[in-house]
């Protein structure tokens, strides 16, 4: 048995009524873009033809033994399904295809409905597990599960049908299993995180280094086996899928997109036509990671390091980090929220209002049709609030053995 040794509270206990009021206000502000949907005829019917169609289309092509990374074939399939905008591609690696494979058995609208149910379930389970691991008050767990739906990145992921909630679930399950020394399960959870490896590059590297340092061979083997099995499943339908993915990333990669990353801003300022410039922040992230591993490696705590790893991974991501990918920011947000729920002094209220203001501003900009690139400020802003909150809470809660 174990109990949460919580960080020093900021003040007195916060009431469930206060948190409920905050949740209601957050929902009203952040879900404001829903009002826009009511005034755009047919937009609900068009939802499956947004980003979700790339997953459904890749699954359809795979089961028909075609190349799921072929843009011309994908464009034909998406046009036949009613998409009128340019083709959207599934840039995820071959092992991710196994997760979308069941979608091929359903028509587009039915597959999209199933996808939304799975994503909502993944989101709720992930938030519940994270709240528990960060020692949040048990009586407030329902709010911790319900409130994130009002977070603008979550709304964005659900709206376009993106895969980010599955990544969040993988992170939550990894933390759960690592805390309990269930290395095989932790390794399996990494397969979910690997659906978008570029989004959490530093986290993946940290896992590898620490697993080797701590001789956690079962974690390494289970993760490798999981990825091999998933990629093998895709290869059953398309034996050349690994080579096809390598080819598309080398010769037709995402260089043409305008991601809201610091690397892309640097590219615009220095060499607009050189995609490699976007990887410069990755070098800074690697230097930061090396320092973290050097300073904290001997007494590594995934609970203490998880949020910083996610934040710096997103800050230094070479591409991606789209608003819907920022669902991962729920990890540091829930860590700080679990501490704020234990106190009601002025500092805690100001910090909570800061999170609320950021989310409200992002929601308003989204409702006004802001370009994705305009959201480049969101991760740095959440990082700043996290740093302030972490310093006030004197570090994350820890788990200690219960007395006999």
Please provide the ordered H/E string of secondary-structure elements. Answer: EHHHHHHHHHHHHHHHHHHHHE
Percentage beta strand: under 5%
Q: Rg to the nearest angstrom?
A: 21 Å
Question: What is the 3D form?
Answer: globular
* Poorly predicted tracts of residues: 6-16, 28-44, 399-404
Class by SSE composition = mainly alpha
Q: Could you characterize the architecture of this molecule?
A:
This protein is an all-alpha fold and 404 residues long. Helix content is 63%, strand content 2%. The chain has 20 helices and 2 strands. It has a two-stranded antiparallel ribbon. Helix 6 (94-100) crosses helix 13 (217-237), helix 12 (201-213) runs antiparallel to helix 17 and helix 19 (346-367) runs antiparallel to helix 20 (378-393). The longest helix has 26 residues, at 108-133. It is globular.
């Amino acid at each position: 048995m174990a109990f949460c040794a919580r960080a020093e509270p900021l003040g007195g206990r916060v009431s469930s009524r206060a948190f409920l009021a905050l949740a209601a206000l957050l929902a009203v502000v952040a879900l404001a873009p829903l009002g826009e949907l009511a005034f755009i005829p047919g937009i609900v019917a068009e939802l499956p033809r947004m980003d979700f169609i790339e997953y459904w289309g890749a699954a359809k092509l795979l089961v028909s033994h075609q190349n799921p990374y072929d843009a011309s074939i994908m464009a034909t399939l998406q046009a036949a399904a009613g998409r009128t905008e340019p083709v959207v591609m599934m840039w995820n690696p071959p092992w991710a295809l196994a997760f979308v494979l069941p979608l091929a058995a359903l028509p587009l609208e039915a597959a999209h409905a199933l996808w939304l149910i799975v994503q909502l379930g993944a989101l709720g389970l992930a938030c519940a597990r994270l709240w528990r691991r960060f020692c949040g008050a048990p009586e407030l767990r329902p709010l911790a599960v319900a409130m994130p739906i009002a977070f603008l990145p979550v709304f964005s992921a659900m709206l376009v049908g993106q895969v980010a909630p599955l990544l969040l679930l993988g992170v939550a399950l990894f933390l759960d299993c690592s805390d309990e020394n269930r290395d095989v399960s932790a390794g399996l959870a990494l397969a979910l995180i690997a659906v978008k490896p570029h989004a959490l590059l530093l986290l993946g590297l940290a896992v590898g280094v620490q697993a080797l340092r701590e001789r956690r061979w079962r974690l390494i083997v289970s993760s490798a086996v999981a990825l091999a099995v998933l990629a093998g499943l895709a290869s059953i339908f398309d034996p050349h899928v690994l080579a096809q993915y390598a080819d598309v990333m080398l010769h037709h990669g995402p260089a043409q997109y305008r991601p809201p990353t610091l690397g892309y801003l640097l590219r615009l300022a220095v060499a607009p036509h050189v995609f490699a410039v976007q990887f410069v922040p990755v070098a800074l992230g690697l230097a930061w990671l090396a320092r973290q591993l050097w300073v904290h490696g001997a007494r590594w705590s995934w609970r203490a390091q998880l949020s910083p790893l996610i934040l710096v991974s997103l800050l230094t991501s070479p591409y991606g980090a789209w608003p819907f990918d920022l669902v991962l920011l729920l990890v540091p947000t829930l860590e700080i929220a679990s501490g704020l729920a234990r106190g009601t002094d002025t500092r805690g209220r100001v910090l909570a209002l800061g999170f609320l203001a950021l989310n409200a501003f992002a929601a308003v900009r989204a409702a006004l049709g802001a370009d994705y690139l305009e959201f480049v400020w969101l991760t740095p802003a959440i990082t700043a609030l996290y740093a302030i909150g972490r310093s006030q809470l004197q570090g994350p809660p820890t788990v200690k053995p219960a007395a006999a």
